[in-house]
Amino acid sequence: MRLMGLDVGSKTVGVAVSDPLGWTAQGIEIVSINEELEEWHLDRLQEIIEAYEVEKVVIGLPKNMDNSEGIRAEAARNYGELLHSSLGLPVVYQDERLSTVAAERLLIDEGNVSRRKRKQVIDKLAAVIILQTYLDRQAHKSI
What we know:
Blueprint (H helix, E strand, L loop, with lengths): L1 E7 L3 E7 L6 E8 L9 H11 L1 E8 L9 H17 L3 E5 L3 H12 L4 H27 L2
Parallel strand pairs: 1-4, 4-5
Antiparallel strand pairs: 1-2, 2-3
Helix pairs in contact: 3-4
């Protein structure tokens, strides 16, 4: 079963999908959205879902360090509910505290990725980290 991981921001959504066995996550693309204008581009997500035969969506939940949920977590949940009601797929949430920080650290450690290039790929890499974290947690539950 393939899963899709999303890193939802106010202007972009990083997209990753799992391999067919659900072991690894790969970055696919960054979809532009406009939260302020309520432009969600679910049509593009639907195309990706169909192309990869996705059966479940994992959305990063940006909790605060004290485990509380703030405005961005609420926005992620709202996006998840919209996606579920529009596309009919089950949606689950994965704590994504520091996923963007981890993504940026990986890119900086790579050493040959310019700041401009990092901005272009960070949301996609954050989606990979969110999805891979979820996949790893599920694998540990089955052991």
